[in-house]
Each structure stands twice: as C-alpha cells, then as structure tokens.
Amino acid sequence: MKKYLFVLRRPPHDGVRTQETLDIVLTLAAFDQSVSLLLLDDGVFQLKKGQQPEAFGMKDTASIFKALEIYDVKSIYAEIESLQERGLKRRDLCLPVQEYHRKDIAALIAAFDIVYTG
Q1: I need a labelling partner for 59 at 20 to 30 A (CA). Which of 12, 18, 19, 79 fits?
Q2: Residue 78 belongs to domain with CATH number
Q3: Distance (Å, whole) CA 72 – CA 51
Q4: Counting beta carbons within 10 angstroms of the beta carbon of residue 55, is it exposed (0 to 12), middle (13 to 18) or buried (19 or more)?
Q5: Which tens digit of pLDDT belongs to each residue from 16-70?
Q6: CB atoms within 10 A of CB 87
Q7: Range of 90's domain?
Q8: Residue 49 carries which DSSP code?
Q9: pTM score, two decimals?
C-alpha cells in the first residue's frame, strides 16, 4: 500500500482547492489507503476553531476535517513555526495534530510515497 501525504499551504476558504483536496483525501481513505495531511504556512488556519465561513457565503470545510476521523485519517501534521508565526497553539485547533519543526519537515515528507501539494 502506498502512503499519501497531502500538503495544505493555503488559508481556508481560498477558492475550491481545499475542498477538492479534501474530496481526494476522503476518496482515497474510503478505499483504505494510508492518507496523511501536513499543514504549512497559512494552511495551519484550516483547523482554527470558530471559523464562520457561512457569513461570507463560503462552504464550511471544518466539518469535512472533522469527518477525517471517520475515514481513519488520523495523521495530521503541523509545522510548529507556521503555528507560532500565526499566533496559534494546539488548543486553537479543532483537531489534534502532530507538531514538527521546520528543519524536520523534509524528512517527514520523504517518508511518503506520493506527495500532493494543494
């Protein structure tokens, strides 16, 4: 079985790219593939609690992130420096993440067979 890593760098509600990426993640996971997510840069805002995209006419992707556990997608990684630079802590996120320092991200990515940057 191949190991897939999806890297999210964009902020939430920045077009349809995140929605499409999450659709791919859920599809692969539904077929029992090993799927993980890595949040970098503004991508760390994807899991920020208390978002209200409906107020701006946007689709709420937080509910899709919460469905990841149902699909057995439990490996969600976040870069510590990205969180710190944006003033976020673990308690600010709606799902648990495994934190990695920027210097260790390349080794993390190398552990996967297929890497998709959305």
Answers
A1: 79
A2: 3.40.1260.10
A3: 24
A4: exposed
A5: 788 889 999 999 999 999 999 999 999 999 898 877 666 666 666 777 788 898 9
A6: 7
A7: 3-117
A8: T
A9: 0.90
